[in-house]
TrEMBL record:
Stretches that traverse the bilayer: none
Protein name as it appears in the record: N-acetyltransferase domain-containing protein
Gene3D superfamilies with a match to the protein in the record: 3.40.630.30
Domain N-acetyltransferase: 4-152
Pfam families linked: Acetyltransf_1 (PF00583)
Taxonomy, superkingdom: Bacteria
CDD domains named in the record: NAT_SF (cd04301)
GO molecular function, one term: acyltransferase activity, transferring groups other than amino-acyl groups
Amino acid sequence: MTDLHIRPAREDDIGLMARWAEAMAWETEHKRLDLDLVTRGIRAAYADPQRAQYYIADRAGEPVGTLMITREWSDWRNAWWWWIQSVYVPIEQRRGGVFRALYAHVLALASEAPEVCGLRLYVERENVGAQRTYEFLGMADAGYRMYEKPLI
């Protein structure tokens, strides 16, 4: 893990992050995304840190993974949940500590911020490998099911 460097994403990472989002959607949900729409979405979030923050893991100066953080207010806790989303590590980089390093970085940032009450993420029910990774890192199944009503 010591050969990994975690940094905030830069504007020149947007194209790569969009291609990785495309790959993740296909791999996890067999959904084809509109690359132009995803690129515009990432660009909009990148331009407004209130929407999201992106982080990149670099190994030897090359990007090898990413994740995005969004926020959800908890009135029960009077604090923010940070949601880990848009996680992607290319297949050839998996099992090399990339997500672990990204997670450790975000956990350290959240732990230093008194207005943050914890980290959350969602995972496909069938993605047992990812679930094991999250549990290994100390996360637990929160016992919720996610429902949605798409409008677009």
